Amino acid sequence: xxxxxxxxxxxxxxxxxxxxxxxxxxxxxxxxxxxxxxxxxxxxxxxxxxxxxxxxxxxxxxxxxxxxxxxxxxxxxxxxxxxxxxxxxxxxxxxxxxxxxxxxxxxxxxxxxxxxxxxxxxxxxxxxxxxxxxxxxxxxxxxxxxxxxxxxxxxxxxxxxxxxxxxxxxxxxxxxxxxxxxxxxxxxxxxxxxxxxxxxxxxxxxxxxxxxxxxxxxxxxxxxxxxxxxxxxxxxxxxxxxxxxxxxxxxxxxxxxxxx
Length: 260
Ligand SMILES: C[S@@+](CC[C@H](N)C(=O)[O-])C[C@H]1O[C@@H](n2cnc3c(N)ncnc32)[C@H](O)[C@@H]1O
Description:
The protein is α/β, with parallel strands linked by helices. The protein has two domains: 6-26 and 159-217, no CATH class; 33-157 and 219-259, Vaccinia Virus protein VP39 (Rossmann fold). 25% of the residues lie in helices and 35% in strands. The protein contains seven helices and 13 strands. The protein has helices at residues 6-13, 29-32, 39-49, 64-69, 81-93, 130-142, 221-230; strands at residues 18-19, 53-56, 74-78, 99-102, 114-119, 144-155, 162-163, 167-174, 177-189, 192-202, 208-217, 233-239, 252-259. The strands form two sheets. It has a seven-stranded mixed β-sheet, with helices on both faces. Strands 1, 7, 8, 9, 10 and 11 form a six-stranded mixed β-sheet that branches. Strand 5 (114-119), helix 6 and strand 6 form a beta-alpha-beta unit. The longest helix has 13 residues, at 81-93. It binds S-adenosylmethionine. Residues 23, 57-59, 62-63, 78-80, 83, 104-106, 120-123, 126 line the site of S-adenosylmethionine (SAM).
């Protein structure tokens, strides 16, 4: 699969940009993402479930920190050591020292059972086959106590194959310069796409351009529900957002499932 297309491909070919990884040490996640709409939802589930929580793909702690602040015991896991470092620093500044593990959601083993497992902010889009999704589901089931709950959001949409127009991810002024990020999607099939991110860092003589690519997938809500049921879960609800409004089609879907 070709990971680069359009401008990013041209920049790399001409030696004008450096290739980076999406969640590496220079990632711009906390600059780009200011999403809060899901926090009350996950805090509500945590209150209901009582007991330890596992935040899979916890990133820089966007959900983990509010859960800690609310007094819950939360363990974080992420594939990226850099995202975990940022989460650790942020937690420390807030007075917490949570257990944070580097792990792959497709194959993880922690010596604890949880009452609630979360996979917030569409981290499941990186699972591009049913086999990978089933491995995640199996791992979650193994790490849930009886009556345990699994909740996450995922992309349930179907894209129109073709190259999309680039859009502005963010533009920001930092202490030592300006950072601008653009995003472009190459939709390969209705449920598989490659995302190219181009980051321009203007810092006087140290200006540079970085490009990164990621492969993302969507899955229909009904197929995901079948995978969960086959993996030993009872789907409690499929919602269109974080307010428990029933899912009725569209890109965003939130699922809550109980260990059967
Ligand atoms: C969109 S971010 C979401 C971060 C965080 N959950 C939030 O709500 O802000 C996706 C996160 O999933 C992590 N991730 C991607 N693939 C993973 C995998 N196979 N196992 C564990 N984490 C993974 C990335 O490193 C990244 O931190």
